[in-house]
Amino acid sequence: MKNIIWLLVFVTGTLPSFAQLKTTPVCPGFDADILDGNVNKIYPRAPIDQVKVKFPCFSEVVESEDTGKCAGVFYPDKGISFYTDRDYIEITEKYKGKLSIPLMGMQRAKLFGLLGHPKIKDISWDAFQMQYGTLILYYSKSGSVNKIQMSSRSTETLKLCD
Fold it and tell me: In terms of pLDDT, which residue wins out, 4 or 108?
């Protein structure tokens, strides 16, 4: 009887040691180059698999726009999204990475000295023609930048998600 009890104790004590350990994917720091239009040398035209390999800590991946959502790789907790089918990268106020030009929170009036005249101007956003395509800056009610979109497309062919 003692042997059976010891056997049960041994078996139940060693079962947890056979559990699989799962690692949490770690991303490198995000480093956005506003003038070159990339994040860690990942450009808006990068395929979805390249983004997933470079930044494996994604929260969501949408492979095809057939689902009713825009396709891409999304990092909402990090404030960045790669819209791979529509060729643009979006950075929001939650972004904690580096910006080559610290645009987030900058007042609209100060942008002319850095970026020149916008190609298209609206009440809540400006679109600037860049060497790589289009840079769109969105503004809060106080007039400071609260969202950045870098697209490889021109303003005429731009397709953004809602």
Answer: 108
Is 42 within 8 Å of 30 (Cβ atoms)? no
Please spell the DSSP secondary structure of 12-52, one letter per residue: HHHGGGGSPP-PPP-PPPPEEETTTTEETTB-TT--HHHHH
What single-letter DSSP state applies at residue 59? S
Confidence check: pLDDT of 20 > 90: no
Helix, strand, or coil (residue 158): coil
Q: How far is Cα 145 from Cα 137, in angstroms, rounded to an integer?
A: 6
pTM: 0.84
Kindly list the domain boundaries of the chain, sorted by start residue. Answer: 28-151
CA-to-CA dists, residue 49 to 28, 41, 82, angstroms: 16, 14, 11
Question: What are the Cα distances from residue 11, in Å, to 1, 7, 21?
Answer: 15, 6, 20
| Maximal CA-CA distance, the chain | 87
